[in-house]
Amino acid sequence: MTLVVNGTPIEVDDEGYLVKLSDWSEAVAEEIARAEQVELSEEHWAVINVIRDFYQTFEHAPAMRPFVKAVGQALGADKGKSIYLMKLFPDSPAKLAAKIAGLPKPTNCL
User: Fold this and answer.
1) Count H helices, E strands: the chain?
2) Over the stretch 89-107, which tens digit does the pLDDT of each residue have?
3) Which of 8, 72, 88, 105 has its CA 20 to 30 A from that of 51?
4) Which listed residue (27, 67, 109, 110) is catalytic?
């Protein structure tokens, strides 16, 4: 599958995750979010930055529990809650945030 961002084709797998992590940019994130019907706000970007930092540190995208903990540590206890993340990234916050952040699908997520 291919996602076109600013006229450039970006290869994604059958679930919409980037094939090459190096293809990620904010414009790519915006296009993935648009395809997922998510309008990115400052709150989304803060969480995206947390999950990208997590990936750089641990070399894998976090499943839900470590994702919630990382967000809480980075952004405060009020944001480190599943309900907050569900509002930003519906259905499966860890999977959707990872996809928009250009990361692989978390291994513990179905």
Assistant:
1) 5, 2
2) 999 999 999 999 999 999 8
3) 8
4) 109
Best CA proximity match to 66, nearest among 37, 35, 98: 98
Q: How far apart are CA 95 and CA 89, in angstroms?
A: 9
Q: Which tokens is 69 given? A: 């903990």
109 is catalytic: yes
Three-class DSSP category at 3: strand
Containing H/E element for 10? strand 8-11
8 A C-beta contact, residue 101 and residue 23: no
Global pTM value: 0.95
Q: What angle do CA 35, 107, 45 make, to 5 degrees?
A: 45
Strand partners, 10: 3
- Could you give the CA distance from residue 97 to residue 2 in angstroms, rounded to a whole number? 19
